[in-house]
Amino acid sequence: MNSKIFTKTWEEESNEDTMEGLYLTFSLDNRDYAFEVRYLVEIVALPPITTIPGTASFLKGVINLRGKVIPALDVRLRFQMESMDYHDRTCALVVQLEDLIIALIVDKVNEVIRIPKDHIDPAPKIGDSEASRFIIATGRVGDDVKILVDLTKLLSDEESHAVRQTGALGT
């Protein structure tokens, strides 16, 4: 299940001019998802979450990351999956979406992989689930398929505005 797509070390890869085709993979409910590494700021163990009343159920609250208040979004709930207690593998993927920094809570992080463009296929349209708007494609990785997520669509304009009201703008 852990297929290697590229043979270069991370250090060699980071010296190249591009991160095109690099994806961070994570799991939710035993399904593998991925997003472009260019959005990733850092991966952290899940810190305590301060809840904020009146927010959407998938917005769990805010975390304090070295003095910066960052909104925390439970991706499992955003994808309309059943809620699950957090465990020792649960972590926060801190991502930057334009001027907004947000922590995405996922079941576990897997690896960074390279998916060549010719291994990426448009996402099949199965049903009209709201969660399907976040899925942009599938990536073939050996015998596995990764579901590619468009992070820029995780929040609607209205939701994005509400998150910005927490004062959690990036630098």
UniProtKB/TrEMBL annotation:
One Pfam family in the UniProt entry: CheW
Family annotation (PROSITE patterns): CHEW
Name assigned to this protein: Chemotaxis protein CheW
Organism of provenance: Leptospira kobayashii
InterPro entries, per the entry: CheW, CheW-like_dom_sf, CheW-lke_dom
PANTHER family noted in UniProt: CHEMOTAXIS PROTEIN CHEW, CHEMOTAXIS SENSOR HISTIDINE KINASE-RELATED
Taxonomy, superkingdom: Bacteria
Residue stretches making up the CheW-like domain: 20-160
